Amino acid sequence: MRSTAPRTRRAVVLAASGLAAAALVAGCGSSGSGSSGSGSSGAGTSSPPSPPSGSGAPAAVTLQTAHDPRLGAIVTDGAGFTLYRFDQDQSNPSDSYCNGNCATLWPPEHADGDVTVKGIDSKLVGSFTRDDGTKQVTVNGWPVYRYSPDAKPGDTKGEGVAGSWFAVTPTGGKAMPGTSSTPSTPAPANPTPRPSTPAPGY
User: What is the C-alpha separation between 50 and 48, in angstroms, rounded?
Assistant: First the structure.
């Protein structure tokens, strides 16, 4: 009498393989929701991809103001790291032109939930969906980013990089050297003209 065990085992394996293949096809065929759909390179993904590896973007973030002695009032994240804006981006409607390797050097400030603000008008803070499906925080429409070489809270190494990156102000503007609100000695009524020189830090 021949055993039917091998035949039964083969049938079970084939059935399991068929179920796995069906699940894979179903997963690839579903369409993600909430993505912008413009220029997405991850066609066919079932949901927005995770933020860049290692970022562990929280469900909610905090934006706060800080005073830099050179730049004046700037916006930082909840840990005190400076946030920047990029001149090539758009603010109306919000859109980011920093993707791929750019987004590795300048990690977007992600937000998948509420954004808490301290010292910033909450009406100026929002978010939009990037091409990769993740949400990025905006200040007055401008997407905001960290700068990877900033090693500690308060660093502003990204200020003026390539003439296009600037620390962002609480109103979404570009922080510039010399805009500090620290009181200074009043200028004389008739100051002596002097040749213009490039602003420091560029």
Answer: 7
Q: Would you say residue 46 lies in a domain?
A: no
b/e burial code for range 89-116 (CB count within 10 A of at least 16 → b): beeeebbbebeeeebebbbbbbbeeebe
- Is 4 part of any domain? no
Contact between 188 and 136 under an 8 Å Cβ cutoff? The reply is no
Structural domain count, the chain: 1
- Residue 55 in any domain: the answer is no
Q: What is the pTM of this model?
A: 0.61
Local confidence band at 60 (pLDDT 50, 70, 90 cut-offs): confident
Write the DSSP string, 137-148: EEETTEE-B--T
Q: What is the pLDDT of residues 173-188, one digit of tens each?
A: 999 997 544 433 333 3
**Is 32 part of a structural domain of the chain?**
no
φ/ψ region of 138 (left if φ > 0, alpha if ψ in -120 to 50, else beta) reads: beta
